Amino acid sequence: MSTPTSAHGLGPDHARAIRVARTLQPFNHNPQARPEDPARWWRTLCWAADRIAVSGDLDPGRAADQLAEWVAAGVTDILDVRGEANDARRVAAHAPTLRYHWLGTHDDGDRQAASWFDEIATVVEPVLADPARRLVIHCHLGVNRGPSATLTALLLQGLHPIEAMDAIRAARPVASMMYAGDAVVWWGVREGLAGDEIVALHDEVCAWHEANPLDVPYCIQQMGRARYAA
Length: 230
What we know:
By secondary structure, this protein is α/β, with parallel strands linked by helices.
């Protein structure tokens, strides 16, 4: 009889080890883990690599200007990972030369499915195979989903998970990457790593979060205040 596997392709013992390691503590209220002026990062284009940027979403009040700024920065493709919204019509109206890709998902703090990361790969790989194309990945605030998808893109480019997370946080101080653990498990299965190796990678991600906490509620609160003040 074959050994049952989790949705991410792991055996039950390894999947259980990852569940036990998962914690939300590094993302909770923590006055010592508050970046300066989180609101200014909301819709700032942050380059995590030469051709991969991460941002928050388009501002409905200045979408045309924002898209023009992205085009001027060399962006050719947008990957929008918000499950709650879709800007296909807006992008087509204001920046028809941009390729718009939508892979919407939830942001409820639960696990992201392996199929979502598969879909990210189907977008990212052909985009980055063309040296003339540059990609911006965004969710709503650019805190969890967008940065986690950006991590996936960097893994596909050959970066080690911790190197990739360092690059994303350096470029975007409000990048929490709550779904980084799911990304590295998916990547490990895709790369054919052994279960023990995948658990070890997941543990490294958890340790990174513990060493680099971020007060996510504070960041979201500050961005919300900026929205209502605008």
